[in-house]
Write a structure and sequence with these properties.
The protein is mainly alpha-helical. The protein is built from 23 helices and 7 strands. The termini are far apart.
Length: 546
């Protein structure tokens, strides 16, 4: 534990206790995780793998609409399938399986708080939980099907185990080993880059672990973790060796991929800046204040984790927001260590900035809703109408009452919040929760209308009624499109290979005519659907071979 990490003596006041913190986490994670269709992007793509498992396909190896998914392991999809089985009678299948994300997000918050307690003292647990909860980058991904949230939870579990090594070497190492194995089961070899090097860094650099007892325990834990990583590939080699080969090839291709280009580094840095807000300013304060103790375990552990996560993003060669999720836990740890030592002026500024920021954003959400319900402000109403030209708002009275209640509760909590070193993080987390719940209450129908492909799938099913399609070829369809068609309509499309297809029907996305596909044959357009509007406009066309 760091020398400065003493329990505060003057401002020692609890906020709303463990029960209040748990309720706040539930209120943040549950709304928006249920109550809407699978959205385009990661949400519907990863749900498709869960749906395939529920259909008996891809239990050992995830698949999407019959195609192997090589980027992630099966852990997240197994948990999603369990939630779908247990709660499928109560919720739609996609909502029930999406509960896996708040489950893993809750685990990530729990293990982050536990790590902070072991590194900096028990008084930092609440700050770590609140800061993790309020991180801007977490808000969307914590409410969609997202295996990276599971990786984030296992990363936090590994850090919690390593933080325990100085006090209880065997227990801490075994816990960290479990985190390594589960992280591998979540994201494959890429997860080992985020976890395994930490064992070596801690054992060689941290003075708290440079003793025979701790070093031996770390070697034991690393051996157990790597040994456990072999179990799933071993089962896969016995039941689906082709899938194992494909998975290994994809993993190797990921390591051999070109890194981010220099011009992309600036964009990645800017993206990370808002993604981990408001953690990084407080984390920098911690590093400055404890700059003479950088090699001790409480600092070297989160610093090394940040470096490893940044290297993983750089090596991937892609600017993907979800890939930044492993940055949240280590930044939250550093920020939690700095909260108790913030100057009074900085702490008050953080407090008021949180209140004013979420007050303004809450007002913006209200304006977006009034633009839908009452066409005011007119300019915003026209913009929203262009993005979703056929959306019709319903249930305005119930939405209004619930949204007003959310705002009143937030104002009351902020007004009565006692003075404490955690007041700023608490106001930020409560503001984020209020804003998210308000957006879900007022804007979820509009968001769902624009991000769900259910209308496309249902319209295509009607167009094919009475037809005998046999097989349907596809051009330009994304993973989201294929997954949505599979889930909502039970349609699985075939690939067009070398501009050839034996199928009589062809589904094209944003293509005028299927030029080059059997040029000696004629194709007749029999269906068209325009989804969304403005820059988000997508056009789907179905052709039939004469």
């Amino acid at each position: 534990m760091l020398d400065h990490a003493q329990k505060p003596s003057t401002l020692k006041r609890h906020l709303y206790g463990a029960t209040g913190l748990a309720l706040l986490i539930v209120l943040y994670l549950l709304p928006g995780s249920i109550g809407h269709d699978p959205w385009r992007g990661d949400d519907v793509g990863h749900f498709a793998a869960v749906y395939a498992m529920l259909q008996g396909d891809g239990i050992l190896f995830p698949t999407i609409a019959g195609e192997p998914l090589t980027r992630f392991g099966p852990l997240y999809y197994w948990v999603g399938a369990i939630f779908a089985t247990v709660f499928g009678w109560l919720l739609p299948l996609h909502d029930a399986s999406r509960l896996a994300t708040p489950f893993f997000a809750g685990l990530a918050i729990f293990w982050t708080a536990r790590t902070a307690s072991r590194l900096y003292g028990r008084h930092t647990r609440t700050a770590a939980a609140l800061l993790t909860l309020g991180t801007l980058g977490l808000v969307v991904h914590a409410h969609e099907h997202q295996p990276m949230i599971a990786l984030m939870a296992m990363q936090a579990m590994t850090l919690a185990g390593l933080a325990l090594v100085p006090a209880q070497p065997i227990k801490g190492s075994i816990q960290a080993a479990a985190g390594v194995a589960l992280a591998f089961l979540t994201a494959g070899p890429g997860a080992l880059m985020l976890t395994v090097p930490l064992f070596l860094i801690v054992a060689t650099i941290s003075p708290e672990c440079r003793n025979p007892r701790a070093s031996g325990a770390l070697i034991l834990g690393l051996s157990l973790g790597l040994s456990a990583c072999v179990i799933w590939p071993l089962f896969l080699s016995m039941h689906a060796p082709d899938h194992l080969s494909l998975w290994l090839e994809d993993a190797w291709a990921g390591f051999a991929a070109d890194p981010l280009r220099p011009r992309d580094l600036t964009r990645a840095f800017e993206m990370a800046g808002w993604f981990v807000w408001p953690l990084w300013p407080i984390a920098l304060w911690t590093l400055w204040r404890l700059r003479h103790q950088l090699l001790r375990l409480p600092l070297i552990l989160p610093i090394s984790t940040i470096v490893l996560a940044a290297l993983a993003v750089y090596a991937s060669g892609e600017l993907d927001q979800a890939a930044l999720l492993p940055l949240i836990v280590p930044f939250a740890l550093l920020a939690a260590a700095g909260v108790p030592s913030l100057r009074r002026g900085a702490a008050n500024a953080f407090d008021w900035f949180a209140v004013m920021t979420f007050g303004v954003f809450g007002l913006t959400v209200w304006l977006a809703w009034t633009a839908q319900a009452y066409f005011w402000p007119p300019g915003l109403a026209r913009s929203l109408d262009r993005m979703a030209p056929d959306f019709v708002l319903t249930g305005t009275m119930l939405q209004t009452l619930l949204a007003v209640g959310i705002c009143l509760v937030w104002v009351a909590l902020v007004w009565k919040l006692p003075r404490s070193p955690n007041r700023g993080p608490a106001n930020w987390a409560m503001g984020m929760t209020m804003l998210w719940c308000l957006a879900v209450t007022l804007l979820l129908p509009w968001i769902d209308h624009g991000r769900s492909y259910r209308p496309v799938a249902e319209s295509l099913t009607i167009a094919l009624a009475g037809e005998d399609p046999g097989c349907i070829a596809a051009m330009g369809l994304s993973t989201s499109h294929k997954a949505s068609l599979d889930y909502f309509s039970g349609l699985r499309t075939e690939r067009v290979v070398d501009n050839e297809t034996p199928c009589r029907y062809l589904l094209a996305h944003d293509d005028e005519l299927p030029i080059g596909v059997h040029p000696d044959r004629q194709w007749q357009q029999i269906w068209e659907y325009r989804h969304g509007g403005g820059k988000r406009l997508e056009v789907f066309r179905l052709y039939r071979r004469d």
